[in-house]
Description:
Layout: E1 6-10, H1 14-25, E2 31-36, H2 51-54, E3 73-76, E4 80-84, E5 89-92, E6 97-99, E7 102-105, E8 109-111, E9 124-126, H3 130-141, E10 146-149, H4 153-164, E11 169-172, H5 180-197, E12 201-203, E13 208-212, E14 219-222, E15 227-228, E16 232-235, E17 239-241, E18 253-254, E19 260-262, E20 268-270, E21 276-282, E22 287-290, E23 301-302, H6 307-312, H7 314-322, E24 334-339, E25 342-348, E26 355-362, E27 367-374, E28 377-384, H8 390-402
Helix pairs in contact: 1-7
Amino acid sequence: xxxxxxxxxxxxxxxxxxxxxxxxxxxxxxxxxxxxxxxxxxxxxxxxxxxxxxxxxxxxxxxxxxxxxxxxxxxxxxxxxxxxxxxxxxxxxxxxxxxxxxxxxxxxxxxxxxxxxxxxxxxxxxxxxxxxxxxxxxxxxxxxxxxxxxxxxxxxxxxxxxxxxxxxxxxxxxxxxxxxxxxxxxxxxxxxxxxxxxxxxxxxxxxxxxxxxxxxxxxxxxxxxxxxxxxxxxxxxxxxxxxxxxxxxxxxxxxxxxxxxxxxxxxxxxxxxxxxxxxxxxxxxxxxxxxxxxxxxxxxxxxxxxxxxxxxxxxxxxxxxxxxxxxxxxxxxxxxxxxxxxxxxxxxxxxxxxxxxxxxxxxxxxxxxxxxxxxxxxxxxxxxxxxxxxxxxxxxxxxxxxxxxxxx
Length: 408
């Protein structure tokens, strides 16, 4: 890539901010313009499902710090709608265009919508941005029961927040236990016991057949025919990378678990033929990175969707955009969740394991330490209230992922 004179960063969240900061740290002194769909600057998204819902922090208190010497122009409240690679420009939804020499795609992901049937009535929420958190916080403050549709980490965190407020909670999920896909059956069964002990009404292997109410939510009908009366529901059905504005651009895009903009290990966006696109890099939830554990049947690229990806890959992406040399090793994703009094921390990709080893399980002190393995090597680890144990596991995962891999 040639060194750009001006850079446009599409996405004014954590990934966009980290990419901009990394560009400055690497000596880029040209113009940086950040485009953000929301009307405010970057904020700490993980706090929304925890401290903001419980009232420990306001939405405004989640702002991320911005270095005074970032020297960037901000175009907030605007959305990119089309990319013209030939003209090296992008169109915004207010009818204006922005020219670029270098482009950072950091548009993140959106909450997956209700798949049907019908249109959910008011009272059915999603949780992705600040406005969502404020709306859901207001609904929970009004009392009444909460129905959580989707038993992944987000659904479990919101269930925890609602129970801490004293609200009845019903958690509906298609698996045997909440979070099973992410952490495996051994850990998920332990966490399910904690949730049930905290008063959550768990409905495993269940879906919502439809919602009740027209002008406002009155309840839901479950797939087993059960009717639940609630005034608030949360759809926690996963996320979809924001790639709609890139359709027809010639970049390689995909949906599903490997969805997003495909990129190489340096973060350079890939064209449909697989070669790197000139002057374009990708970072954050919208990036589909090369699969760190490729084997038969696995997708070539994977959207990790963790906070750590935007942080750990920012410098590599900035170096690639500036045409600078930078050693590249496989980064190890990390994730954390605070729920029901537990500090859950994980590294690697536990969901790709075919075997789980339990190293410590102390139900009395709510402690747990497990490692995940696939094909004879360690692919992840998770601890509950044993955070100090995680650093060594992360280093082992990093070594094993990079073993035998040629440097880039």
